[in-house]
Design brief:
single chain; 532 residues; alpha+beta
Amino acid sequence: MIKLYDKKLIHGCHVYRVIRGIFFLSISIHLLMNMGCSHQDFRDQFSDLDLSKDLCEGVPEYQGPKLSEQIRPVAKKMETYTGIKILEEGTQAIASRAWLSLSAEKTIDVQYFIFSLDNIGLIALDYLMRAADRGVKIRVLVDDIMVEADEAFILEIANHPNIDIKVYNPNINLGKNIAQKLSATLTNFRGINQRMHNKTFIVDGVAVITGGRNVADEYFDYSRKFNFRDRDVLMLGGAASEVQKSFDLYWSHPLAVDAEKLVKKAIKTRPELTKKLLQQYACNPANYWPKVRSNVLSYAKKAVNRVKDELRWIKDVTFSYDNPKKNERKRGLSGSGVSTEALKALINQAKKSIDIQSPYLIVTKKGEKLFANAVKRGVRVRILTNSLASTDGIEAFNGYQRSRSELLKLGVEIYEYRPDAAIRFKIMTSDLQKTINHKPIFGLHAKSMVVDGIITVVGTFNLDPRSANLNTECFVEIHSREISEELLAVMEQEYQPENSWRVTKDFNPDSEAGWFKRFQAWSRWFIPKSVL
């Protein structure tokens, strides 16, 4: 996470001017070092492939019904209701995306903050390429700051006649040299920190997966070292049309730029070779295990029954999303957005309980007032966030440390996730995890809320100023007692001592992280909490 600094906080104070200079310099160096070295030649991962052998020969292919046939039994319901299924496990989440890719007939629209070129990312790209070969129109929209691929690779993928790639707010990374990156960091700090955090996967305009997961190994339980505990929602019909509308709005916005236009120099590309390498990589049983492939095919073939039997049909479902140019007319790093105001309204209307899961918990004075008012109304507020031992964001945790005592004084109940949470044995069900003799660190990444046991929110919004003011965000709001009670039951399980630590005025589990991580968190003291 790249953190922010609000110059209004230091106006008139010499010591803070010095701190601001140090902060901007450190952020500039961080950006340049990470992005200057982040572009990968994906072919490095294929050095052991023998292209004289066709690894795809004999690999089973999907021969089942297409999406229109799968959803025919529920087509009438889809006109006025939204089919909902919460995707808790990584295996569910990846199988659902694969199923929709295999079943797509017309379009696949993909919008992500992170789309890594690791095992999950490359196999996902192969699915998209194969869908494009069938005539499906593919649109991919990714945020600029986390693009890992080199320019040649992006051009090679976009060379396919049925694939278009755009990059959101390309002002700091793709197509920029070191001097341009430094200039943007120093002269357009707000602009480079306005990122697209939305995550949507839309097939044929009627089926959607949205939530906390990016496209990378660790979001689907396929990392050997660190995995995220995350959550998505599968949507069919109903509010799925709003998700499609949001994607179209972002796609047509001037901030979304064709990838080809960002490449200013002549680059030699080999699109046919790239396509073959992707196919061979995905067909390699060492990368895509036959058992996993078989499970995915089985999942897709049973889609008709799954659509009829597993989805809950809900009348009142809303999809909220920010404008592509969030806070366009705001100066500094403050502001708000559609998603922020919608969440505030939900918290303000709560009468009995608010249960929240957020990986980052950085509460400003406005946020403290919001929760204080809820507690005064008799609302029980419980929040599960990462512990220092489980977090992947040191700066964010330092901001939370400075909020922790005040939140407890207000009456908010706080739980911090254990890196060895027992629930990981239930949630991390990927076949990879069954082959290793240890369990990776488990960190919270789900962004969810249940209000009064009847309203469920699942999306991309973190409880921090970045999500509130800068990043574009989105979330699904589901008015269903049944869905809410099911999610609340999962949350209750994660409040238990084997999964999280209950924080009190006399106890926090920071010591579980070890001295070096504690030192790392302490060393971020100079960054103002309100701009993290």
